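Two proteins were folded this term; both appear here.
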Amino acid sequence: MAGGEKAVIQTRDGKIEGGQEEGVFVFKGVPYAAPPVGDLRWMAPQPVSGWVGVRPALSFGNIAPQNAGTRPIGPGLSGTQSEDCLSLNTCSPGLDDERRPVLVWIHGGVFNLGSGSMPMYHGGRLAARKNVVVFTIDYRLGMPGFLNLKEATG
């Protein structure tokens, strides 16, 4: 994260440290559910385990695994691919008690490609210009995200 002061806030699950970019507070790669791996693979998202201390939120989390043969829906698809990809990013013009509209952006990509960390989805400008809090998320894509095996496996 370039420039700006650091900011630590308390969330339901623990403290996170973000920073400022272009005049807004930015927190990246914050988990919103437990990693969907092992016994949690194919299951609905489960609550994230809280943490002790301050969790860095200065860089984007993992992106969902994607077929190397597909082209991203826009420039800038990068990052480590992992099933442990359930994280969110947020941009806010302030960390005060002011009431602001909230926009949650779920990236497109026909449920097979893309990421909430793609530069074209960064919410900093919108947050600054319209005094709105912007969230982007990464979620499971393809079969790990949408294949329902309940009837086949019980």
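Next, the second protein.
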Amino acid sequence: MLVSQGVPQTFDKYATVTLVQPVTYDSPKNGPDGQPLKDEKGNPVTEKATATEQTIPLGPAASQIAIKQLGTNGGGFYNVNSAHPFENPTPLANFLEALSILLIARGALLHVRQDDRRHAPGLGAARRDDADLRRRCWIAVYAGEGAGNPVLTGLGADQVATATNPGGNMEGKEVRFGVANSALWAVGDDRRRRTARSIRCTIRSCRSPGWSRCG
């Protein structure tokens, strides 16, 4: 599914492509000795340069993202989690990756119930409590983030949602997919870890001599 959305899954070497819109930028200027030049004030001397190509890092990203989402394996293939456009290129990819987080606890519960049905009552209660808390947290986070930061509003920052602006308090968040998806991701990822801890604790309790108290 991630490959269908444009996530790389290959062992080919990096690809170099021509930019549709060349980018002009200030490039540090080096002297004859190869060291950066500085002006009389000590500031770096720059010159205009134009980028016409871009190197696209390739690799088995999609499969590694699946492993990352189902576990707790660091920052992802591009080391910035799912904020990288090659790792999370479309709203559908973002939804699928967020959904995988929300389904982890359910899958763990089903596995445990098949292993030992004595665990079912306690784990089922933990799962229901977790789902209810997740919904409440998402509503709270969405309301807070969607309302924007009053400090920034006072400074004149535009936090109204438009066709080109996600609106709300999106500083430091996934601005490509808006407040709702960003809130869903934040709540789901945090609850995943908490639910995993709850499940582990419940299993240990169920396997003790007083396992019946799980009900």
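Residues 90-214 form one domain. Residues 56 and 183 are 29 Å apart (CA to CA). These notes refer to the second protein only.
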